[in-house]
């Protein structure tokens, strides 16, 4: 199975900050990497697919980049509604696997 | 509006069985793969099983192979997950999720989840 490792596992930041979350795959997954946001008690919500394509309705302060094994999710100018847990997921190999999550908390 | 609604969760003893359902609306159900993804309390996301749009192919994570069975009923726009020989490690919120398309591999719509608790 392809292992997905996110860093950091948790992150404290303030409204207006710029934050970056990293996701590393255990092998080359090209750009088959997707990002989700999950708030407590809710289902995950797709933010990006294939590394950098914003899902409809996602604000442009979110951006994604990378290829191969290393990927990043960046949020410019954090807003109050951005505090949540973020997961990466690969779809290059079966089974589809997720990172362990990065919890973004208010500093 | 695309909607996925899960049902069937509950409390079951170890070794018991439970059947989850996911009812879809707002899209052409027969043209999309559907997966079940679970989340143990306080933990991350784990893909569990998927089924092809026509029901002809299924796949499972190793930990549930031989115990869980995914199926679909196009007439009812629903996908089911039959879970047998449950263990405490199966305790989780189970989400059904729609695959965006056959090549991209992301899940673009999710249900709200249904909680399965395996405990004596």
3D architecture notes:
The complex is a heterodimer of chains A (107) and B (120). Chain A has 107 residues and is mainly beta. Helices cover 0% and strands 50% of the residues of chain A. Chain A has strands at 4-7, 10-13, 19-25, 33-38, 45-49, 53-54, 62-67, 70-75, 85-90, 97-98, 102-106. In chain A, strands 2, 4, 5, 6, 9, 10 and 11 form a seven-stranded mixed sheet that branches. Chain A has a four-stranded antiparallel sheet with strand order 1-3-8-7, with no helix packed on it. Chain B is mainly β. In chain B, 0% of the residues lie in helices and 51% in strands. In chain B, the strands form two sheets. In chain B, strands 2, 4, 5, 6, 9, 10 and 11 form a seven-stranded mixed sheet that branches. Chain B has a four-stranded antiparallel sheet with strand order 1-3-8-7, with no helix packed on it. The mean pLDDT of chain B is 97. Chains A and B meet through strand 4, strand 5, strand 9 and strand 10 of A and strand 5 and strand 10 of B.
Radius of gyration of chain A using CA atoms only: 13 Å
Q: How much of the sequence of chain B is in beta strands?
A: over 45%
Order of helices and strands of chain A: EEEEEEEEEEE
Biggest sheet layout of chain B: 7 strands, mixed
Helical content of chain A (DSSP H or I, runs of 4+): under 10%
Total number of strands of chain A: 11
Mean pLDDT of chain A: 97
Uncertain runs of chain B are: none
Instruction: List low-pLDDT spans of chain A.
Output: none
Q: From the helix content, strand content and strand pairing of chain A, which structural class follows?
A: mainly beta
Annotation, overall tally of beta strands of chain B: 11
Kindly state the percentage of residues in helix of chain B.
under 10%
Enumerate how many helices of chain B there are, as a single number: 0
Order of helices and strands of chain B: EEEEEEEEEEE
Mean pLDDT of chain B: 97
Q: Structural class, judged by helices and strands of chain B? A: mainly beta
């Amino acid at each position: 199975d392809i292992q997905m490792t996110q860093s950091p596992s948790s992150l404290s930041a303030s409204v207006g900050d710029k934050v970056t979350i990293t996701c590393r795959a255990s092998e080359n997954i090209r750009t088959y990497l997707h990002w989700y946001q999950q708030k407590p008690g809710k289902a995950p919500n797709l933010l990006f697919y294939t590394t950098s394509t914003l899902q409809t309705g996602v604000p442009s302060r979110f951006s994604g980049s990378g290829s191969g094994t290393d990927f990043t999710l960046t949020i410019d100018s954090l807003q109050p509604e951005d505090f949540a847990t973020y997961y990466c997921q690969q779809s290059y190999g079966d089974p589809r696997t997720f990172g362990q999550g990065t919890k973004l908390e208010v500093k | 509006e695309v909607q996925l609604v899960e049902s069937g969760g509950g409390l079951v003893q170890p070794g018991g069985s439970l059947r989850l359902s996911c009812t879809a609306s707002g899209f052409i159900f027969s043209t999309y793969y559907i997966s079940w993804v679970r989340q143990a309390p306080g933990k991350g996301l784990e893909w569990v099983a998927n089924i092809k749009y026509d029901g002809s192919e299924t796949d499972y994570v190793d930990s549930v192979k031989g115990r869980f069975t995914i199926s679909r009923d196009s007439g009812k726009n629903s996908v089911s997950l039959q879970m047998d020989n449950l263990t405490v490690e199966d305790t989780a919120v189970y989400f059904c999720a729609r695959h965006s398309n056959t090549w991209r591999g992301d899940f673009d719509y999710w249900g709200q989840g249904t909680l399965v608790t395996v405990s004596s």
